Amino acid sequence: MSTKYKFHEPTAIYFISFAVVGWIDVFTRTVYRDLLLESLSYCRKEKGLNLHAWIIMSNHVHLIISSKEGYLLPNIMRDLKKYSSYRILKEIRENTMESRKEWMLYLFSKAGQQNSNNKNFQFWRQDNHPIELDPHLNMFEERIDYLHNNPVEAGLVANAADYLYSSAIDYEGGKGLIDIDVLI
Question: Pfam families, alphabetically (predicted)?
Answer without folding.
Answer: Y1_Tnp (PF01797)
